[in-house]
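Help wanted!
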Amino acid sequence: MYVELDGQGPRYAQLIRALKAAILDARLAAGSRLPASRTLARELDVSRNTVLAAYEQLQAEGFLLGRVGSGSYVADVGSRVSPNRRNPGQAPVAPLSPFARRALASTDGVRIPGREHAGLRYNLQYGVPLTNPALASAWRREINRAAERAEFDYPDAQGLPELRARICDYLTRRRGVDAQPEDVLVISGTQQAFALAARVLLDANDTVVLEDPHYRGARQIFLANGLRVRGVRVDADGLVPAALPPRARLAVVTPSHQFPTGALLPLARRVELLEWAAASRAWLIEDDYDGEFRFGGRPLAALKSLDRDGRVIYIGSFSKTLFPALRLGYMVLPASLRAAYRAAKWLEDRGSNTLEQAALANFMANGGFERHLRRAAQTLRARRSAMLAGLARHAGQAVEVVDSNAGMHLTAWLRTGSHADCERLAAHARERGLGLYTIAPYALKVSLRPGLLLGYAGLPSADIEAALRLFGRCLRETGLLA
Amino acid sequence: MYVELDGQGPRYAQLIRALKAAILDARLAAGSRLPASRTLARELDVSRNTVLAAYEQLQAEGFLLGRVGSGSYVADVGSRVSPNRRNPGQAPVAPLSPFARRALASTDGVRIPGREHAGLRYNLQYGVPLTNPALASAWRREINRAAERAEFDYPDAQGLPELRARICDYLTRRRGVDAQPEDVLVISGTQQAFALAARVLLDANDTVVLEDPHYRGARQIFLANGLRVRGVRVDADGLVPAALPPRARLAVVTPSHQFPTGALLPLARRVELLEWAAASRAWLIEDDYDGEFRFGGRPLAALKSLDRDGRVIYIGSFSKTLFPALRLGYMVLPASLRAAYRAAKWLEDRGSNTLEQAALANFMANGGFERHLRRAAQTLRARRSAMLAGLARHAGQAVEVVDSNAGMHLTAWLRTGSHADCERLAAHARERGLGLYTIAPYALKVSLRPGLLLGYAGLPSADIEAALRLFGRCLRETGLLA
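Answered by r_m:
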């Protein structure tokens, strides 16, 4: 009998695996007798106990019949489970769902972070976190403290009550949002807010309105869920209310800092937006993704603060204010949606990770969070200046920079060239070790100009200068700068 | 002018809130002139600078027109946003989705953990984690170590590569599952596996087969997603293959330890199940929820080890082997499903929390995890003995205990009485401070006998004895024990 051991783990386990495979593939036919343990032990150069242990286990599992000593016979298993075939490849044995097919289509070509940064010298992509040693050590302290009092049981699916209370304090003071802890749902990042909205607020074929351009992750999950997505034009003042379609079930908006153009939606447009939503009986999701960081002008209170009839769902993220690996965000829900969202979160994942929630609640309570925000705002201000100066110096007449005075990124529109040129630029830059995002993938209709999303959170000012020098070189090398 | 400050936070912020509310509710009509700052300051007994700061902010936001000094006028905002109404109540301003209505219906009356344990003296409910000081301190150490090397950027959406590698080692050695790191998807607990399956594998109106009784969370998320759920009878050997319906898209099975009856599915039935799946082109989800803990007999390798054509999706949870607050589990996917699941996880939440993944990878690599499992198995063995002895002593002839020799709970069937009696017993026990789960909610058709799910993980042996003494008293007080 020919049996090959694979050398992984203990000998008897190797033997069990090898014999099972032979039985399942019908190389050892049903009814055939196995060699005596002594014989097989000699053949394989293993101890007899090893063979006995393997035979015993295979008998316990039903692969072998008979008793040790009086001979072991192969049970009738293999040929039925596997009539001499194996499916080594990629072909699914049953169909994938329409969701899966749409999810694959909508994320096709998306580089999933953690992989795309490899080999980059400088990364100016949006979404790279603010690297900050002070935050790292403060956060480590909070984690250690939270670990000492760790809970082991299931968390409150709605979120730790202490954390929800701290989020309310914070929103009242900083964003003018008047929320109670029972209105807050803690989620695993902003993306989950869109995934939940797709289910709780919308049914197949319902229409969702997105600003155009917009956050691509929202579009992708809505499309995967079989929803219709309509884009609404954005100008220097953000979403253009006159362009809203007559009917939709939901609009996702970024009034504090339009994503990605950075525009600030004026009050008059906010009012028009609310009127539109009331007239079409639509929900509004306000994504306040970096409303915390403004470097000039006073911040406007959140749209949610104007919401009198429970129509606005406010979402905030700690991926920008702290860091993305945290996987925590939150929603402020109208009273009418609390129960449905709580049930949905419970059914989706039973609640977000407790340890980080506890650490964050404490970080917010002891003032560490706001101290970090102040420090982060200073750092971002300096990096933003470095980026503006560097763009002026190295990108010269090639780009028009839109100065939104806020956030962690800015947009640079190409003065000449097509979208294809812009993609070519990004590809060339990547080869030279510079990470750039083009704006086109963030839009439904590419009616907008070719341009780039330039993040300045992830690099110290000196590196930003060096990165932009390289950027200038890439512009020249692709013929976009004389 | 009457304006009331709410006393929350700085004075100027209070004043801004109060004025906005008055404008939005049209108590301050569009076009009306606000009092001079000096006048209002005197009226409210605040400094003039407070009033000036508030006016300035309201002008910046567009609520007021005019310039400070020459008088401030109310902009035309309030009456349009809010024509004198407020929606204080629960009525949604737009319809909820069918998913949301079904989610609410399917979770109606579900007590969400973290709330239901309040006031209990003894908790014999299923799902209470194994309390274990050694684990707590070992885990704290791992968290501290992981926090020192914390990553800040987005995680790999599929799960930390180190953790996926450790899970593969573990499954090969302990469960006979031959998996590669690229087959593994790290998820936020088992519940997410069902939520993802509902989307990736199934479309509206597809049929899912569940063992009956089964894990309720799976049924709820499938129902919420608009799927048809069919139950299949379970006997002392687990799922009865002959009872499988001719067609279904997916079956969820618990071959190692049927949930909740504890039965171990024999090899012959495993083979029949695989044959059924091949004939109906169905996927199989193997929920190996506590396959790690067996106290007698040898463990059978996982069903997945028999899967030759990429049909079985294996799911494991760290909620049972470690603790539920961790919110981590994993799936082993056939090659044909990897890309679709990765896209789905990316679109749902961008990946699970990194810190715990890193801590867990290290805990598994340095042997701490298996050490914990060995210790936990000893503890569970002792607690299980205490429970069996206590039931024999105090519940006498009232219950028939099914001894599955595995896991963290057992089932106790009432010898007399109806399902209503069983519910009455649980309610009475709760009043006396004893937490019990009845089995009925875990079944689709309550064709099974009335019984209880008794968890023994959460209490030391002495408390189990005391809890069962109380249980005996409750049985007598409800007339179920003479």
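OP: Thanks! One thing I noticed: Chain B has 16 helices and 16 strands.
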